[in-house]
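Give me C-alpha coordinates for this 142-residue protein.
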Amino acid sequence: MKGCVCLFLLLVAAAVSAQSNESPDEAAVLSVQRQWLEASQAGNGNALHQIIDDSFVGSTPNNQIINKQSLLPPKGSEPTFRNSHFADLTARIIGDTAVVFGNMVTPEDSTTLRCAMVYAKRAGTWKMIAAQLVPVAETRGQ
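Here you go.
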Protein backbone atom coordinates (compact mmCIF):
# COMPACT_ATOMS: atom_id res chain seq x y z
CA MET A 1 0.00 0.00 0.00
CA LYS A 2 2.83 2.41 0.88
CA GLY A 3 4.41 1.62 -2.47
CA CYS A 4 1.20 2.58 -4.31
CA VAL A 5 0.91 5.85 -2.38
CA CYS A 6 4.56 6.70 -3.12
CA LEU A 7 4.10 5.86 -6.79
CA PHE A 8 0.96 7.99 -6.93
CA LEU A 9 2.74 10.97 -5.31
CA LEU A 10 5.68 10.56 -7.67
CA LEU A 11 3.36 10.58 -10.71
CA VAL A 12 1.50 13.66 -9.44
CA ALA A 13 4.80 15.48 -8.82
CA ALA A 14 5.98 14.59 -12.33
CA ALA A 15 2.73 15.86 -13.85
CA VAL A 16 2.92 19.15 -11.94
CA SER A 17 6.55 19.57 -12.92
CA ALA A 18 5.75 18.96 -16.59
CA GLN A 19 2.97 21.56 -16.50
CA SER A 20 5.24 24.25 -15.05
CA ASN A 21 8.10 23.57 -17.45
CA GLU A 22 8.56 27.21 -18.46
CA SER A 23 11.80 28.93 -17.59
CA PRO A 24 11.91 32.09 -15.45
CA ASP A 25 12.52 34.14 -18.62
CA GLU A 26 9.54 32.54 -20.38
CA ALA A 27 7.35 33.29 -17.36
CA ALA A 28 8.64 36.88 -17.25
CA VAL A 29 8.00 37.58 -20.92
CA LEU A 30 4.51 36.04 -20.73
CA SER A 31 3.82 38.31 -17.77
CA VAL A 32 4.91 41.35 -19.81
CA GLN A 33 2.67 40.16 -22.65
CA ARG A 34 -0.32 40.12 -20.28
CA GLN A 35 0.69 43.52 -18.85
CA TRP A 36 0.70 44.91 -22.41
CA LEU A 37 -2.89 43.76 -22.98
CA GLU A 38 -4.04 45.10 -19.60
CA ALA A 39 -2.37 48.47 -20.27
CA SER A 40 -3.96 48.61 -23.75
CA GLN A 41 -7.38 47.84 -22.29
CA ALA A 42 -6.97 50.50 -19.58
CA GLY A 43 -5.57 53.10 -22.00
CA ASN A 44 -2.48 53.29 -19.75
CA GLY A 45 0.00 55.11 -21.96
CA ASN A 46 2.65 55.26 -19.23
CA ALA A 47 2.71 51.47 -18.85
CA LEU A 48 2.68 50.97 -22.63
CA HIS A 49 5.58 53.41 -22.98
CA GLN A 50 7.59 51.23 -20.55
CA ILE A 51 6.68 47.92 -22.25
CA ILE A 52 7.13 48.93 -25.90
CA ASP A 53 10.65 49.59 -27.17
CA ASP A 54 11.35 52.80 -29.12
CA SER A 55 12.41 50.66 -32.11
CA PHE A 56 9.04 48.81 -32.20
CA VAL A 57 7.51 47.92 -35.57
CA GLY A 58 4.29 45.98 -36.07
CA SER A 59 1.66 44.83 -38.52
CA THR A 60 -2.06 45.22 -37.78
CA PRO A 61 -4.83 42.77 -38.77
CA ASN A 62 -5.59 45.02 -41.76
CA ASN A 63 -1.93 45.00 -42.89
CA GLN A 64 -0.91 48.46 -41.69
CA ILE A 65 2.67 48.92 -40.53
CA ILE A 66 2.79 50.71 -37.18
CA ASN A 67 5.38 52.08 -34.76
CA LYS A 68 5.48 52.66 -30.99
CA GLN A 69 3.61 55.97 -31.23
CA SER A 70 0.70 54.15 -32.93
CA LEU A 71 0.22 51.99 -29.83
CA LEU A 72 0.26 54.84 -27.31
CA PRO A 73 -3.33 56.03 -26.78
CA PRO A 74 -4.04 59.73 -27.30
CA LYS A 75 -5.61 61.41 -24.26
CA GLY A 76 -9.35 60.72 -24.08
CA SER A 77 -9.28 57.96 -26.71
CA GLU A 78 -11.09 54.64 -26.42
CA PRO A 79 -8.92 51.83 -25.05
CA THR A 80 -7.97 49.10 -27.52
CA PHE A 81 -8.69 45.38 -27.26
CA ARG A 82 -11.31 46.25 -24.61
CA ASN A 83 -12.81 42.81 -23.88
CA SER A 84 -10.12 40.61 -25.37
CA HIS A 85 -8.12 37.91 -23.64
CA PHE A 86 -5.22 35.68 -24.59
CA ALA A 87 -5.51 31.96 -25.25
CA ASP A 88 -2.75 29.39 -25.77
CA LEU A 89 0.19 31.73 -25.16
CA THR A 90 3.62 30.18 -25.45
CA ALA A 91 7.05 31.80 -25.29
CA ARG A 92 10.36 30.74 -26.77
CA ILE A 93 13.59 32.28 -25.55
CA ILE A 94 16.72 32.52 -27.69
CA GLY A 95 19.41 34.43 -25.78
CA ASP A 96 18.09 37.92 -25.11
CA THR A 97 15.22 37.53 -27.59
CA ALA A 98 11.79 36.06 -26.95
CA VAL A 99 8.95 35.18 -29.30
CA VAL A 100 5.42 34.89 -27.94
CA PHE A 101 2.73 33.09 -29.94
CA GLY A 102 -0.93 32.72 -29.15
CA ASN A 103 -4.42 33.93 -29.85
CA MET A 104 -6.21 37.08 -28.76
CA VAL A 105 -9.93 36.38 -28.51
CA THR A 106 -12.76 38.92 -28.40
CA PRO A 107 -15.94 36.95 -27.61
CA GLU A 108 -18.42 39.76 -28.32
CA ASP A 109 -17.76 39.81 -32.04
CA SER A 110 -16.27 36.30 -32.28
CA THR A 111 -12.91 37.68 -33.40
CA THR A 112 -9.71 35.73 -32.95
CA LEU A 113 -6.35 37.19 -33.86
CA ARG A 114 -3.21 35.08 -34.11
CA CYS A 115 -0.42 36.94 -32.31
CA ALA A 116 3.30 36.85 -32.78
CA MET A 117 5.17 39.28 -30.54
CA VAL A 118 8.94 39.63 -30.33
CA TYR A 119 10.68 40.89 -27.20
CA ALA A 120 14.29 41.86 -26.54
CA LYS A 121 15.88 41.95 -23.10
CA ARG A 122 17.23 45.45 -22.61
CA ALA A 123 18.99 46.28 -19.33
CA GLY A 124 17.33 43.25 -17.72
CA THR A 125 13.79 44.19 -18.85
CA TRP A 126 11.74 42.55 -21.61
CA LYS A 127 10.69 45.16 -24.22
CA MET A 128 8.28 44.51 -27.11
CA ILE A 129 10.17 45.17 -30.36
CA ALA A 130 7.82 43.68 -32.97
CA ALA A 131 4.29 42.35 -33.28
CA GLN A 132 2.01 40.87 -35.89
CA LEU A 133 -1.72 40.33 -35.43
CA VAL A 134 -3.42 38.23 -38.10
CA PRO A 135 -7.14 37.40 -38.22
CA VAL A 136 -7.87 33.70 -37.87
CA ALA A 137 -10.14 32.50 -40.66
CA GLU A 138 -13.48 31.24 -39.41
CA THR A 139 -13.79 27.47 -39.49
CA ARG A 140 -17.12 25.76 -39.52
CA GLY A 141 -17.88 22.11 -38.89
CA GLN A 142 -17.83 20.04 -42.04
